[in-house]
Amino acid sequence: MPVCSIFLLSLKTSISAFLAAIRATSPRLDPLVTAKVIRWIITPTTLSKKPLLSPPSPWHVLLILPGALTTLPEHLQGLIKNQWSVQAGIPSKLISTFTSTNHNLLHPSLTEIPPLTGSIVNSKTATSAQGLELTDELRDWISIGEGPKGAVSMLNLLAFNPGMKDRYLAYGKAFAESIGSKRGGVAKIVGKVLPKSGDDGWDEVTLAHYPSLEHFADMLAGGDYQAVNKRFRVGSLRDTCILCTSEIDVEVLGGFKANL
Length: 260
Fold this sequence. Notes:
Oligomer: single chain
Shape: globular
Largest sheet: 8 strands, antiparallel, barrel
Radius of gyration: 18 Å
Strand content: 25-35%
Mean pLDDT: 92
Number of strands: 8
């Protein structure tokens, strides 16, 4: 199973300058994913809590690179304030088609974007998003337009309760077949964290695509989603976190007018 390395980076320079340095790297670095970090949706409660939530400065970039890397090339280190990384084995069938699949997800035709179900209208909100439920704060943040205007990629770290992996797989099956896919949700990367990778106890890492933040919120507000979420997902996890990112491919082409 091919290994990929997931890096969260806090930069000393602009994102555009850092990306230029990556392009100038020899031998060439070809990230599978390069994304701007937007915000936490769910924060970890125990695992990696201090390094993920209390870095010396905010996270700027998510990089996913092929290969088992614990650090980036030396000439890039001078541009980085802080980093956190984890390595994961990802099925070869996902890696072999990822570039084309991801391009199609990030650049869909209008007819390929599913309509919102309307579940967010008059929906009940939760006091916390930690159970992957819609809160007033998250709904308001999306509605005032401070986030990306195009597709978003949600980085998930997962640690399972003993003997509960099968329950999470039932959640994943429902996500792929109905509750996620009908809102355009796609788990485009799913990987098993390598033993002692980060030494924090995470089991899996995933990267989930949504056509927009509105589609993500529409899912969280859906009664169909929450029935499955509460039945299978919540109790299966001993810890998890979700980080919202916007892939640079989308931003450069105008999906999100970010200051790179």
